[in-house]
Amino acid sequence: MTVSNKITILRTVQQVRQWRAQSFLNGQTVGFVPTMGALHAGHCSLVSQSLTENDKTIVSIFVNPSQFAPHEDLEAYPRTLDRDLEILELQFREKHVDAVFVPKISEMYPNGIVLDVSKQKGAFVTVHGSSEQLEGVTRPQFFRGVATVVTKLLNIVQPTRIYFGQKDAQQCVVIKNLVRDLIIDTEVRVMPTMRESNGLAMSSRNEYLSQEMKDRSSVIYKALKAGSAFYNENVAKEDKVSASELISTIKKVIEKEKAFEIEYIAVSHPDSLEDLEYVELGTGAVVSCAVKVPKENSTEKARLIDNIILD
Do residues 120 and 269 both lie within one domain? Predict the structure, then answer.
């Protein structure tokens, strides 16, 4: 355990449990913000909410290998621990973050971890019914990895509340189902998506993009907003709107950027994530998409996700 100015840095499960035990003894609530680092204003908004709602706040920084497939960007994923700690210290001076958990892979996966799911050893968690669609179609191992690491972190930290951003809409549904079904005594708090001034959803993967590409990528949110406007205009007439027409409206806007590759656009039930034929007033929907855009100085593309909620 080390202390960086006011922030206690915890490296092991035992250190976190000792830190948490003191909060239990003092009857203090604990808010928890799990991250993979490369912190941005979106993460900071979650931390700020936790600081407002809890006596103590802990942040984790851990790039989780089990949610990456062998062909994905685990090694390239940005790792900026020193900058992340500086952000947490400078951004929150009036009421500071109490602890940051920065474990090694061996601490979180005692059996070790390889990216090939068929060769992995140990206990893993799968949330059936909300993991297979949307992101789960092209990244079938992703939510198994997310559910596993979040379960581990919840067991370690035992927070009063855990915080996620709405940008990762499917992840939020998966985690809510996980906490409910495993009867974990933690409240899941989902906060609004934080955006750049141009509307682009804040994401660690935005670091792959030039400023020009960030500006061009703002078309994703503009397209979703066009879908929202189409819904609001038509739902007042018939109390329901065709999902296929919604998707078509969004697709036309994104397709103006010829270099962008639409992976999916989906209109889903807000609780089950089942595909909807119609969006009905009162039930609403999650309208989500994944779009691949050119990376800076690379022939590869960055995969950006975003969503809006229809009431």
Answer: no
Q: Which of 258, 108, 126, 236 is closest to 181 using CA atoms? A: 126
153 and 34, same structural domain? yes
Residue-wise pLDDT tens digits, 74-124 = 988 889 999 999 999 999 988 999 999 999 999 999 999 999 999 999 999
- Do 233 and 95 share a domain, yes or no? no
Catalytic residue among 43, 71, 96, 128: 43
> Is 43 a residue of the active site?
yes
Give the closest residue to 230 by CA, choosing from 193, 203, 267.
267
Do the domain assignments include residue 2? no
- N-terminal to C-terminal alpha carbon distance within the chain: 46
The answer to whether residues 296 and 216 belong to one domain is: yes
Domain that holds residue 219: 204-310
Task: Name every residue whose Cβ is closer than 8 Å to that of residue 227 and which is 6 or more positions away in sequence.
Answer: 246, 247, 249, 250, 287, 308
Would residue 310 be called left, alpha or beta, if left means φ above 0 and alpha means ψ between -120 and 50 degrees?
beta
pLDDT tens per residue, range 221-276: 999 999 999 999 999 888 899 999 999 999 999 999 999 999 999 999 998 899 99
Shared domain for 170 and 271, answered yes or no, is no
242 in Cβ contact with 285 (< 8 Å): no
3-state secondary structure 260-292: CEEEEEEEECCCCCCECCEEECCCCEEEEEEEE
The answer to whether position 199 is within a domain reads: no
127 and 45 within one domain:
yes
Whether 198 maps to a domain, the answer reads: no
Amino acid at 27: G
